[in-house]
Structures are given as C-alpha cells and as structure tokens.
Amino acid sequence: MLLKVLICLTFTLSYPMLAYPEGLNDYLKKAAMNNPGLKAEYKEFEQAMLELPKAKSWHDPKLSFGYFIDPVETRVGAQRASLFLSQTFPWFGTFSIKGDVAEEKALALFEKFIQSRNEVFFKVKKVYYELLKLHQTIIFQKQQLEIYNDILKLVSNKDDYGKEQQLDILRIQLKIDELLTQIKDNENKRPSLHFAFMCLLNDKKIKINYDENHLEKPDSTLINQIYTIQGNPMFSMIEHQENKAKALKKLAVKNGLPDLGISFAYIFTEKREDAPNLEHNGRDAILPMLSLSIPIYRKKYKAQKKQADLMFDQWKLEKKDLMNRLNTKKYRCIYEINSAWDNFRLYSKKYPAVMNMAKLQKELYLNSNQNYIEWQRLQEKALEYLLYELKARKMFWTCHAEIQFLTGHDSSKFLSEEQINWQQKK
C-alpha cells in the first residue's frame, strides 16, 4: 500500500503558487522535473521502496534429493533415494518489524528528496534574482550613459567654447568610458549566471523574459511573519531515522528468538523380490519433521541492540545540531531581510531627491557654464542610490527565499489535501 501511495504522491505534485514574479513558478516546476541531482535522489528513493516487498517476503523453500549408494534394507524393501522439502519461518512478528525498518528507511529518503528539492528551488530563486538585478543594473547604467552623451552634445555645441568647457568635455568623456567599461563587465557576468541557471533547470534552451520579469518591491507584510524551522523536511527525516532505530532494536530481539522449520521427506523404497506377497511390499515412506533453531551465540544479538541504541542517540544529537544550525541561519536571514527593507526605504527616498537636485544643477551648469563637477557628483550619487535600492530588493527576496528553504515552506505547499492527510496519518 505504501508503495502505491508514494508513487501517487510523487507523480501528482502540484507546485506552490506563491507571490513570485511571473514566470518563476514555471522555472521551479521545470527544475523539479529536470534537475539531474533530484532525479538521482528520487531513484535512490525508488530503490528503497522496493525493499518493502523484499523485507516481508518468505524465505525460499529448499528442495533436496539424496541417493543411497549402498541401499538401506528395510522389512518392506531397500531404500534407494530420498526427496526433502523444507521451509523455515522466522519468529512471530519478525516480518512486520522488517517491513517497518524498510518503510522508515524509504520515508527518510523521501524527506531527504524533498529537502534537496527545496534546496534546488532556493538556488533557482537566488540565481534568478541575481540575473534580474544584473539586467536592471545594465539598463540603469545605459540610461546614465545616455544622459552623459546628451550633455556632451550640449557642451560641445556651445558658442562660447573655452578651456573650462574643454575640461568639462574631457571629464564627460572619461565618465562615458567608465560607464562603458562597467556595462561591458556586467554583460560579461551574464553568461556565467545564465549557465548556472540553465544547469539547475537542466535546459539548454531556457530563456528569461526580462520584459515581463523584474525585481518586485519588497513586501513589508513578509517581515513580521512568524517563521518556524519545524517544517524543515530534515526534521521529518530524522524522526523516521529514529523510528528506524527503534524498529532495529525490536528486530534484534526477534532475531535472538528461534526460527521455526517444517519439512517433509519422501523416501523411495524398492520392492522385495523374495517376498512378493509381503504386506506393504515396496511402500514409500513419508516423514514430516519440525525443526527449531537454537540461538545460543548471543553476542551478535547484543551487538545489534547496542548498535540500534547508538543509532537512536546519534539521530537525537543530529536533531539538536540541525535545530541549532537552522536557527542560526534563520536569525541571520531575519536580520538581513530587515536590513534590506530599511535600505530599500532609505534609498527609494534618497534617489528622487538627488535626481531633482541633479536636474536643477544641470540647468544651472548649462546656463552659467559653472559647477559641472557638482552636477556630475549628484548624477553619480543618483546612480549609486538607484543601484543600492536595487541591491536591497535583491537581498530582500533572496533572504525571503532562504527563509522559505530553512522553514520548509515549499515542501508543505506542493502536496494535495489528500496527500497531506495521508502524511499526517503517517
């Protein structure tokens, strides 16, 4: 039953419709379906599921044949050959516990698969936001380049062309060269990021529609959300590992109990020629037998129980360590997402103010041919604040994505209601 349910659970995934920019959900779905690392982990999970029927299967019966080189003479004839059929049975309840061990192992691997899937989601979001930030950075730098090109034309076309204007033209040309270098550098970054994005999705033809996708403004309602790490799939994985350790201890006790055996022997008997009228002459013999193993060597069973205890203690410590690590990362992310929100608010206010100052300074410069350096300083500040705001947006959404990864947000969203109910019963 577990095998059927888990197959349905995996192949009827429904992906979360979160507040992502348009298109990101499609990328997440493609990554979940195509990422080779996830496929490999799912293959491991499928292998573990196939351990369930193996764990609960009976031992194969044994059939043996014997031939008497020197026939055994009996009253009804000489025994020529024998055929033995035997079947052994473990102690009552052993198969059930073996099934529990295999089942807990499979469920632990499934949770590990979900955790890896969530990690891939986080990596996709992180690279995606970085690509959007890089694209918008290039757009802003090109807009700045146009501003400098325009003012270069205005200064060059002035009638009162003197040494001060020559210095201004040189300053403008140097700034244009600087912007061109920055744009080229950012353009060179794009292929490596796009390749990383392509590898996560395992799709060489993937393209991002930058016209319809951009970094959204941070959502202040997300800052005050209560984040709990208990939803992380690794906690469920550790719980299944603990259950597996408990089952292994019970199995060690069962292994220390006798195995039962039933066998039948069929002995072929040859008729006596010297007594043709003998009753039951040449009658074959049938011998039913019962057997019982005697587990007197107890060291291996004690070692199995001790091993199960140590395994249980190990996962208790792993759980504590996981909680400490996740909480450390969570509080770091909470600080960073608050910092990103504060920076976004700050620079979204400073940018319009500096831009207005730059426009006024530009008019003063064009009218009086003075204070070009002040205009350039204000223009540089405007771009700086704009890029800081963009960086804050990217940081906000990246931190939010990491918090979702740490808290297992995506793993709780993609299951259908029926599958969630089944998981809660488990």
TrEMBL record:
Q: Name one Pfam family in it.
A: OEP
Q: Which UniProt keywords apply?
A: Cell outer membrane, Membrane, Signal, Transmembrane, Transmembrane beta strand, Transport
| Molecular functions per Gene Ontology | efflux transmembrane transporter activity; porin activity
Indicate where this protein is primarily found. membrane
Q: Which domain of life is it from?
A: Bacteria
**What cellular component GO annotations does this protein have?**
cell outer membrane; efflux pump complex
Q: Where in the cell is it found?
A: Cell outer membrane
Question: Keyword Manganese: yes or no?
Answer: no
Secretion signal, residue range per the UniProt entry: 1-19
Cited PANTHER family? OUTER MEMBRANE PROTEIN TOLC
The family classification in the record reads: Belongs to the outer membrane factor (OMF) (TC 1.B.17) family.
Task: Return the protein name.
Answer: Outer membrane protein TolC
| Organism for this UniProt entry | Aureibacter tunicatorum
